[in-house]
Design goal:
α6 links the parallel β5 and β6. 37% of the residues lie in helices and 21% in strands. With 369 residues, the protein is α/β, with parallel strands linked by helices. The chain has three domains: 1-50 and 94-114, no CATH class; 127-187, no CATH class; 192-365, von Willebrand factor, type A domain (Rossmann fold), CATH 3.40.50.410. The protein has helices spanning 2-22, 24-29, 31-35, 102-113, 147-160, 207-225, 247-252, 261-275, 296-313, 330-339, 357-365; strands at residues 41-47, 95-101, 127-137, 180-189, 192-200, 230-238, 242-245, 281-289, 316-322, 346-351. It is extended, with a radius of gyration of 31 Å.
Length: 369
């Protein structure tokens, strides 16, 4: 029975996984899924999954389910009762909510988009201590005292010495009874990563554009979190000036001023220099804008900062241009003109609407860097 239940559970998981894959593009473009995020888990509503149920036979016999009956009468279907209202035209929809871990969701994303595992840097420079309990010792700190083994030693001593009284089973351990956990330390090479998100919050970036950025960032986080043991996030907003903010402010702030993109790049460089040694950290830079910049001189400054400072120290620089009715889209053209469209260090993508987010993820993460 247990093996049968396990087989059924695995089959159900495969069905759920297949449904998620089938609906993945819709999930990616929907903000509802992000709102269902819990502690490393997400609740996903999956329509059109038939839930197993009991089905009764067709024989119509009298019974004792309702109405009169005698002891020993066979239980069968009752007489049909008239319903109320009119019949619908379509078949009923079964909806089921399932919990999926972020790690499993990332695996599904990776499989569907054929994403390569990231070849990270920094593993030779950072070591993490791992403590593994490996045995029992007679000496050690009280914080590692093994209660069960200590009690067994005290009980054994009490019985062998004749002090044990079954009617008054009081066991008091002495110093020689105490047993302690032993452990060994291993050093594991680890790789850490930081994502620095930058976004234009000038007047031309509306609520829908910011929602697209929020959804894109969620899926970027979901994938990159499975590739690194430690993942830090930093958020920079900019119009004519740039400042570091928390994630909530990042997605809700709206300004009305002009745009100087170089201010964000300069602040990102300062954050890296102050806290993220490029020899030890995998650095990911994601900039989202509608393509407007205040002047050609500032655009030239952006290209210089990227070429001489940011690109050499980062795993990748990704620019996502979110289409806006007020944005010119010029900055994307300027990047292509300066770096070309196939530069290894820089990845660009035009995100026209929510349906384009899945394609943007494939472009951003498809290089495996």
């Amino acid at each position: 029975m247990a093996m049968k239940m396990e087989s059924d559970l695995n089959r159900f998981r495969k069905i759920v996984r297949g449904k998620i894959k089938k609906e993945l593009r819709r999930f990616i473009s929907s903000g509802d899924l992000v709102g269902r995020q819990g502690n490393k888990r997400i609740t996903i509503p999956l329509p059109r999954i038939d839930i197993p149920h009991f089905s009764f036979g067709n024989r119509e016999k009298g019974g004792v389910g309702q109405g009169d009956g005698e002891v020993g009468d066979t239980v069968g279907q009752g007489q049909p009762q008239p319903g109320q209202g009119q019949a619908g035209e379509g078949e009923g929809q079964h909806s089921l909510e399932v919990d999926v871990t972020l790690e499993e969701l990332a695996q599904i994303l990776g499989e569907e988009l054929a994403l390569p595992n990231i070849q990270s840097k920094g593993k030779e420079n950072i070591e993490d201590k791992k403590y593994k309990y490996s045995g029992i010792l007679k000496k050690g700190p009280e914080s590692l005292r093994h209660f069960k083994r200590t009690f067994k030693e005290a009980l054994r001593r009490s019985i062998s010495s004749g002090d044990y009284d079954p009617d008054n089973p009081v066991i008091i351990p002495v110093k020689d009874d105490k047993r302690f956990r032993s452990y060994r330390i291993t050093h594991e090479k680890v790789a850490n990563a930081v994502i620095i998100y930058m976004m234009d919050v000038s007047g031309s970036m509306g609520d829908e554009q910011k929602e697209i950025v929020r959804l894109t960032a969620f899926w970027l986080d979901t994938w990159l979190s499975t590739q690194y043991n430690g993942l830090e996030r930093r958020y920079i907003i900019h119009d004519a000036t740039a400042r570091e903010v928390d994630s909530d402010t990042f997605y809700k702030t709206k300004e009305s001023g002009g745009t100087l993109i170089s201010s964000a790049y300069k602040l990102a460089l300062k954050l890296i220099e102050d806290g993220f040694n490029p020899m030890e950290w995998n650095i990911y830079l994601f900039h989202f804008s509608d393509g407007d910049n205040w002047s050609g001189n500032d655009t030239a400054d952006c290209m210089k900062i990227l070429e001489t400072s940011l690109l050499p120290i980062s795993n990748m620089f990704c620019y996502g241009q979110v289409e806006s009715r007020y944005g010119s889209g010029q900055f994307l053209r300027d990047l292509h003109k300066h770096f070309g469209e196939t530069n290894e260090g820089i990845t660009t993508c035009q995100i026209k609407d929510r349906d384009a987010i899945m394609d943007a993820l494939k472009i951003f993460l498809g290089k495996g860097r």
